[in-house]
Specification:
The complex is a heterodimer. By secondary structure, chain A is α+β, with helices and mostly antiparallel strands. Chain A has two domains: about 90 residues, Arc Repressor Mutant, subunit A, CATH 1.10.10; about 70 residues, Orthogonal Bundle (Arc Repressor Mutant, subunit A), CATH 1.10.10.10. Chain A is built from five helices and eight strands; from the N terminus they run αβββαββαβααββ. In chain A, the strands form three sheets. Chain A has a three-stranded antiparallel β-sheet. Chain A has a three-stranded antiparallel β-sheet with strand order 6-8-7. In chain A, strands 2-3 form a two-stranded antiparallel ribbon. In chain A, helix 3 packs across helix 5. Chain A is elongated. The N and C termini of chain A lie far apart (about 40 Å). In chain B, the strands form three sheets. In chain B, strands 1, 2, 3, 4, 5, 6, 7, 8 and 9 form a nine-stranded antiparallel β-sheet that branches. Chain B has a three-stranded antiparallel β-sheet with strand order 10-12-11. The longest helix of chain B has 26 residues. The radius of gyration of chain B is 42 Å and the shape is elongated. Chains A and B meet through helix 1 of A and strand 13 and helix 13 of B. Chain A: It is found in: Cytoplasm. Chain A: It comes from Scylla paramamosain (Mud crab). Chain A: Keywords: Cytoplasm, Protein transport, Transport.
Amino acid sequence: MTEFEWPWQYSFPPFFTLQVNADVRKTQLDAWCALVTSWGKQGGVTQIDVTEASDLAVFKNASIHRALPPDGIQVVLEELVRRGNLEWTDKTKRRGYLLWRSAGEWGTQIYKWAQGSSRINTVCTLYELAHGDETADQEFHNLDGDILLKALRTLEASGKAELMDFGDNQGVKFL
Amino acid sequence: MDRWFWCDSSLSSGEAVAASAKSIRLYDGDKKTGYEDGHLTLTNQRLLWRHESQSSSLGLPLSLVVLIEDEAGGFTSSPKLVLHLASPPPGHPSGPIASSHASYVRLSFKHGGCSSFQQALQKALEARAWETLSMPQPANSVKASGSKKIHTGILGIERDIQKKQEAASQNISRAFEDLKNLMGLAKDMVSLSRSISNKIKEHSVSADDTTQFRSYLLSLGIDDPVTREKYGSATQYHHHLAREVARALEEPVQEAGGVMLLSEVYCRINRARGLQLLSPEDVVQACNLMRTLDLPLSLHTFESGVQVVQITGLDQDKVVKDTAQVLACHEGDGMSAGDLARECGVPLLLARERLLQAERCAQAVRDESSEGLRFYPNLFFSRS
């Protein structure tokens, strides 16, 4: 696994203090969300636990002796939720799925592939989608099962797909 | 036990009963005596123990009591009071027991009442009523427990001073008695006038009436309530003062970089005047008027509440730009308010305000850590 390339902000001490100026804060949060999602993608991190978040390497930089305080972490997580990159597992909001690409974006990608390979109005099993040979070149190949389901649900919500159950397997029909 | 003596049950003059208890047994040291189930009476001078069958009582002068201890009762024993006694004086009357080896007696309270009796006994001992009566006694009588009032030496001098102080304070309080009466009468008047002025504030009364009423209040010595609350009374005095301050301090403010803290203005103007110093309120009110009078200096209040006097028309943006430039030179470590103050030669409070102002204009970003508050140039915008 290649070493994660930290962005310049990671070595900038003010990055670890929640800025007061609203415009500056927006830019700061943009940088944070980009950092967390790319770090999650690189490290294969799929879930974040709020109570352990302050121990994660992404939220602190020992070389400049700075760490994002808990309320700052909370703000960043809320912002990730807002952008669709984090989804809480339950109402308690203690654990969340980190989606470096939001479920909606995955759904769009899958549908594009479905269109491109003329699978509209055909049925596909979820296994085929994630691990089949035909999708080997796609980015969503080997995608985590839960995230795949979420992505397909977004398509369902916009009427582009329909989820089906075949006993053991689950399938989807692209419309 | 040899300190007890037979005596009459009647009380002598000046003696008063303080407490009493029933079912008391006397102990000689640790030994039980035959004197049990008696009635114990505490007066301000002695302890009297009497059995119902007898007419005379056993008495113990309180002057002989040195220390009181209490023993809590157990399951089989009742609570007791231990009285440590001094040796009896030579003229001590005889009692039932000629001599005993123990210098303490014990009182056993079979039916309770021990703690309240102990408290009363303590009080009686502290009061030392027998001392005042026994003043004429010869000075060489040995009284280990009592201490005579010392009229000589340091203690005597101290008592004299204390007496004089008490007399003086009494005189003063007597003298101000009359003033208190006067204040009581005036209070009604003041509350009445206050209620009327409050009513004026609430309802609008015609202008003539109010001015007349205000003049009455003023003659009474009560400040006009309406203008007092308005910030800056527009009296001529303050107008003159504003002009004077502007004239005197225009150059120093310019030299200090165009901005000067209000506290420094206050110090400088008073230094310049020498005599007839100004109160802080007057200085503040004068500075408030500066803007309306179109003077070269004016008062400016920052969001954090800090007030400064600055050249009218000072370009805030320029100040922010200058601050950003200074920050840019310290990109590596950032700057604290102290660093900026040292660098630019401005007071600490002013440096802090400059940094906060730069932050508001998105020219600086803050870094809060255990090391304190530092500021960096806003690289979030300028970079990537």
